[in-house]
Amino acid sequence: MSTMPPAESFYEPLGEDAFASTPATAGPWSPDFQHGGPVSALLGRAFERHDPAPGTRVARVTVEILNPVPVAPLRVAVRTVRPGRRVSLLEAELSHDGRPVARATGWRIAAAPAHVEPTDHAPAPPPLPDDADTVAAWPGAHLDGYLSAMEWRHTDGSFTRRGPGRAWARSRIPLVAGESDSPLVRALVLADSASGVGAQLDFAKLLVINTDVTVALHRDPVGEWLCMDARVHASPGGSALAQASLADTSGEIGQVLQTLLVDEHRS
Q: Going from the N-terminus, what domains does the chain have, and what CATH number goes with each?
């Protein structure tokens, strides 16, 4: 079982708005298709770099996964849908060979005044464990991509035991070669793991994949480590939702929601 990243970054720049996907982006279902974490973070990075406005921040990102994203060259395009001094809506599209594979929207809003009194309704996250987990998952899972490119320290549950889970995590490698990850990028790289950290369905027997991920942050995370507290809600004849809270060492920073397809494995 590999615990070392297979590359030095998730993506390598190929020029303006174009990127080569490294093997580190591969998700647990196949070495040929990407995990949603790097995909979401690449779109969030585009939002942050598009017509930056001092005194604003990207507070919410929703990613729609249109097709499996291949481990291959990608291009990102971004535009402003609703301009505004205090509130603006951004839209981005990720494509491969001219075919859209993911789209995202992001709300960029003015930062609250410094004198606003903070409120906190969530319990403090558990202490960061001293030892890293051995990377493991359900039988047949691809471990030598995203799962190994992240460092995991579970405090409740694990990838091999069903039930709600809680884990600290950080990326071992940057999103884009030669860059330092922003706080938003660090949150988005992890956020799409909610259905895995909080897995309550048997991935060996069922296909459980998300069609989207929404990340809403009331403040930017501080530091490399983030704590995810996740659970999955499922109903026969329905679908499933993965829900998670994100925290840094100072407390909760926001929420994650994923809509999940639940189906039988098909050849």
A: 11-111+135-264 (2.40.160.210)
In 98-211, the DSSP E strands lie at 99-110, 150-158, 161-171, 206-210
How confident is the model over 200-209, as a mean pLDDT? 84
Nearest by Cα to 184 from 151, 217, 146, 229: 217
Q: Which two tokens stand for residue 2?
A: 């590999």
The answer to whether the CB of 220 falls within 8 A of the CB of 226 is: no
Question: Among 192, 184, 224, which Cα is nearest to 208's?
Answer: 192
End-to-end CA distance of the chain: 26
- Six token digits for residue 218: 């009331």
Q: What is the pLDDT of residue 6?
A: 64
The model's pTM: 0.94
Q: Which residue has the tokens 């069903």?
A: 162
DSSP of 76-113, one letter per residue? EEEEEEE--SSEEEEEEEEEETTEEEEEEEEEEEEPPP
Tokens representing 113?
């005044």
The DSSP-derived string for 237-254 is TS-EEEEEEEEETTEEEE
